[in-house]
Amino acid sequence: MSGSMKTKRAISNAITYVVLVIISIVWLFPFVCLLLQSFRSYNEGGGGMVEYLLPKQFSLDSYVYLFSEECKFVRWYGNTLTIAVFVALFQTIVVLCVSYALSRMRFKGRTFLMKFWLILGMFPGFLSMICLYFLLKQFGLTQEGAIPGLILVSVASSGMTYYVMKGYFDTIPKALDEAARIDGASRARIFFTMIIPMAKPIIIYQALVAFMAPWCDYIFASYVAFGFSDSYNVAVALQRWVWTNDYQGFFTRFCAGGVLVAVPVTILFMCLQKYYVEGVTGGAVKG
Amino acid sequence: MGKDAGSVSAAKKESSVGRFFEALGNDLKEIGLTFAEGDWKTKVSFLIMGFGPLMRKQLVRGIAFLAAEVLFILYMAGFGWNYLKDIGTLGTVARVVNDNGTYSYNDNSFLILLYGILSIIVIFAFLVVWRMNIRENRNEEALLAAGKTLATAKQDLYSLLDSHFDKTLLALPVLGIFIFTVLPIIFMICIAFTNYDANHQPPTNLFSWVGVENFKNLFSFGTTGMGKTFFIVLGWTLVWAFFATFLTYFLGMGVAIMINKKGIKFKRLWRTILVVTIAVPQFVSLLYIYKMFANDGLINSYLMKWGWVDAYIPFWSNPTTAKILIILINCWIGIPYTMLITTGLLMNIPEDLYESARIDGANGFQMFRSITLPYMLFVTGPFLLTQFTGNLNNFNVIYLLTQGGPQSMVLSNKAGYTDLLVTWLYKMTVNDTNYRMAAVIGIMVFVVTAVISLVVYGMLPSVKDEEGFQ
């Protein structure tokens, strides 16, 4: 009896291993391809698409191009990094402030504010695109000024994304606040010296999520930087390489650029993965 | 007032509207009482805001109120009124060509509408501040009459870090949301009732109010109407959101169960491999996958090399394969995410539940159906709902993979077979500058999202019965 149970378990584990290996292959395959093709020489297919996977001749042609004078890749990379750093910083501050106020303080209009923001969130973001573009243009924050403009837009509306952090604050016992208040600490003091240090994991989560988003921002970034290539971010620039009709020449360059974008972001993410998991799980369960 | 009172009693039962008018009635009554019972400082404050507090040595509050009034008057006189007065027509004089061939620009409908809306909101805000000014006077008088002292300026400022810390914290975020979210959304809702499109572009041309014409156009099924296209796109949007949500949910949970299984080693490794998809920016991975499935892409090349197919499979130009592929690729994106979320939750299920089920002779599937699934659905109900509404607006996956294509001869307004409402909206805005219809579509997206959220939220077991699984 127990013997048959054992073989049964062994078989089912073996099947599970096979499935997991297949899953791993499927999940990693595109990234392996991307990496391999970024090292393909221009001598094969002129840097375009070819019908085989393994490059016959490894070379750094595409990478050399990215860092050459004729390509603004370094600038685009810098743009994206600038946006990501500032958005991560300011967005975290804004979300912290909003979450603390909504979690800890009871004031007139609190539920109204939360309901109102919930409803606002149901409107598709692109709806207001032309109006936002116009507002930015008024402040001179399009084309040449697209980078600060994009930072401003990402930060300005970020107060509405307080859910995860507020959920975290709600789990910190209110008794701690009360005790500190009895000792004469002001709300601000409690916020800076008690709550912020305790909220370190969720602050890291928030900053990480905010940092990752600008790397993917294509829609609004291309609209705001329209026609001014110095203000592109990597997503806009590489997108154009793939979609222009002569992408043939740019395919391996796209792969190389993609690798350069993906590797640092992925490493950062992997290092902070623990906080990310904590954040998304907490956020998902509390709704 | 008499009419007001009548409407109040009638509407009392209809909760929110009734309560609103009741509060308004009480407010008006209090304003009247403040004027009737107040001293001369209070009476002057009705006209010159902050006069009362200033006379009572409440400098900070008094100056704040006075400054609000001065700023309001300056704004309206110097700026707001110029636009507000034309909001009914959105401008009458368009660009004029002068005799010497130059242009002179006159009314700009865009500015009139945007700043007109802003001015209306400013007026409302001013009324609220004015009301606060009245109440401030009343409170001060009451305090003084009771023989108490008023708060000093120092106390006022300190309270912004203590009992009124919420105001300090929320001031900037709320202002940011107002300028960059609320104002644009109100503006675009108004655009849905105008004829702002490629033929009516300010500052060269004017646009004007057209009532509900755009909505009629959306729901008309004639040759020029967009009704058919709208419902086809809406249908695909719902189908997409359904599959994108539930396929990734169940498959992701399946993967999590497999990794959690007893006796499986390298749990961390399997998870890390999957999580790479979350870490790599989507535009890199999705664009690459798009190229992999292109007619001359890797997949087709190998299929032909191995002799599995004779000619390439047009993955992206055939509507059916494009739709299936998008849903599958979305699983590739979404499964790691669900896996992460469900892993921790699955471990929360008490092991003895499974143990007793096993003794009763239940097999793996039965245990999943009667223990795991009900628990998971209960706990992740709200998550599923947000996933679903998020997928309704899942721009990235669709736009990076197909840009809404393949193009369709059946659909109007350049909608493609895989277009969601949001990608269609985006194309209308950017490619066609058909802002009027884009605004209408945006409102429809809101309506669909709101209706689904409200209906489903009420049905969620965790909302109906919070104690269910404790």
What can you tell me about this protein's structure?
The complex is a heterodimer of chains A (287) and B (470). In chain A, 73% of the residues lie in helices and 0% in strands. In chain A, helix 1 packs across helix 13 (247-271). Chain A is flat, with a radius of gyration of 24 Å. Chain A has 2 domains: 2-64, no CATH class; 72-243, MetI-like fold (Orthogonal Bundle). With 287 residues, chain A is an all-alpha fold. The model of chain B is unreliable at 1-13 (pLDDT under 50). Chain B folds into 2 domains: 38-211, no CATH class; 227-464, MetI-like (MetI-like fold), CATH 1.10.3720.10. Chain B is mostly helical and 470 residues long. The chains are: A mainly alpha (287), B mainly alpha (470). At the A-B interface, helix 1, helix 3, helix 4, helix 5 and helix 6 of A face helix 8, helix 10, helix 11, helix 12 and helix 13 of B.
SSE topology sketch:
The complex is a heterodimer of chains A (287) and B (470).
Chain A: H1 2-38, H2 61-66, H3 73-104, H4 110-120, H5 129-138, H6 146-156, H7 163-171, H8 174-182, H9 187-198, H10 200-216, H11 219-224, H12 234-243, H13 247-271, H14 273-286
Helix pairs in contact in A: 1-13, 3-6, 3-7, 3-10, 7-14, 10-14, 12-13
Chain B: H1 2-11, H2 15-37, H3 40-45, H4 51-55, H5 59-84, E1 96-97, E2 103-104, H6 109-145, H7 153-159, H8 165-191, H9 213-218, H10 227-260, H11 267-279, H12 282-292, H13 298-305, H14 319-348, H15 351-359, H16 364-392, H17 395-401, H18 421-430, H19 435-459, H20 461-464
Helix pairs in contact in B: 1-2, 5-6, 6-8, 8-19, 10-14, 10-16, 11-14, 12-17, 16-19, 18-19
